Amino acid sequence: MTYQLNFPALWPSLPELLAGLLTTLGLTALATVGGIALGICGAAIRCGNRPVLRALWGGYVEVIRNTPFVVQLFFIVFGLPGLGLKLTAGEAALLAMLVNLGAYSTEIIRAGIQATPKGQWEAGRVLGLSRAQTFLRVVLPPSLKRIYPALVSQCIIVMLGSSVVSQVSYEELTFAANLIQSRTFLSFEVYLVTTLCYLLLSIVMRHVLMALGRRVFGGVAA
């Protein structure tokens, strides 16, 4: 039995696929900005001198890094309502991606900070800067430059993981693909196009973020 490819049959569904793609882009953009900001705060806490805060944030990092993303998503969607916190599918998806990227970026950024020579901290004190000012103006910029490629890779991983949020009926790219497949039964064509969309997203996202890094940091290793 020979299977006949029928890509033209997908044309009527192209708007749905593009809408899902745009939703994935928006979700990824918000999660990337928020997750990196959360990671910077977490790295500052983990490198700080307050043991209780370090332990609490360290616990959060360990929980997130050692549990599946889909379980984290289901906990937010189905578990939090038991505590009286009800979120829409979009809010839950964004929160899950923020929390996930925040934990991983905390450790990536912390590694960059720990590789920073102690002389930079001392230089900040000599200049009369507070610890917070030294961290933000002296230590953080070269630390981010050092670990930027790894941070970009983690952001792309989170973007690819966003496909899981289709399980809670959030209408992103994978949800759109599943819907189209259930209506057309063109499994091979639909998922091949979806695969190419994710591949294109990954390539474009890496190039855009690396270009942004070169502009901000004045040169970042690929």
CATH C-level class is Mainly Alpha
Look at the structure and give the mean pLDDT: 90
* Portion in helices: over 70%
Counted beta strands: 0
Q: What is the fold-level CATH name, i.e. the topology? A: MetI-like fold
Computed Rg: 21 Å
Give the DSSP E fraction (strand runs of 2 or more residues).
under 5%
Describe the main β-sheet briefly: none
**Based on the structure given, which CATH architecture is correct?**
Orthogonal Bundle
Order of helices and strands: HHHHHHHH
> Whole-Å distance between the termini?
47 Å
Q: Which blocks of ≥5 consecutive residues have pLDDT under 50?
A: none
Q: How many helices in DSSP terms?
A: 8
Number of domains: 1
Name the CATH superfamily classification: MetI-like
Q: How would the global form be characterised?
A: elongated
Tell me the structural class.
mainly alpha
Subcellular location: Cell inner membrane; Cell membrane
Family: Belongs to the binding-protein-dependent transport system permease family. HisMQ subfamily.
GO molecular function: transmembrane transporter activity
Keywords: Amino-acid transport, Cell inner membrane, Cell membrane, Membrane, Transmembrane, Transmembrane helix, Transport
